[in-house]
Amino acid sequence: EEEEEGEEAKIERLKREYEEKKASEAAEQERRRIEAIEGEKRLIAEAQAAEERRLVEEKREAEETLQRYADPPPCGKLRELRLTRNRLTGAVPMGYGKLTNLVRLDLGSNKLTGLGTGSSALPGVGDLEWHKLTRLRHLDVSRNKIRGPIPPGIVALEGLHVLRLETNKLTGKIPDVVSRLQNLELLDLSGNDGIFLRDESAKWLRRTLKKTTLAKI
User: Fold this and answer.
1) What is the C-alpha separation between 3 and 197, in angstroms, rounded?
2) Are 157 and 139 in contact (CB under 8 A)?
3) Which of 182, 173, 161 is nearest to 201 (CA)?
4) Residue 209, SS3?
């Protein structure tokens, strides 16, 4: 009887040990699972922090770049200025109006929101003193983030042959005064979902399209 009781106690002890071992293994698995989750959260937080630092640094560099070109030094002989793909932000500053011999200005593929200081869209040309750029023939501000309507003041750039405004966020009617740009050979407004024609502009574009197939809406 003692042997039977001893055997039963042994079985119970083994059962307890087995249950304890299972509980210990389950606890260890749970601990590892929690550690893995916490580790993943840390990695995500670190990645987010790194991305935030990158964006801040990118913004700082863009602002420094824009500031560097905000008031260009006297360049009386400068004829072409190409600043594509430079991550420029904000609006094109007034200083560009000092480049009076400029023939080509290319600011495409940046993140510009306007063509005048403090404006969220194309400003009146006077804001930029662009009326002084009488020799400007090629203006490209395509693939930016310029919002709002095309201002009537753009007619001051009467020497333009090429005006590229495509892939922005322009809205409203094409102003009738655009028809005064008699030297224009290429007008590209594609990729601006909010743009539509006034009657006078439509007539002018139809006349122009008889001479060239470059104009795009």
Assistant:
1) 105
2) yes
3) 173
4) helix
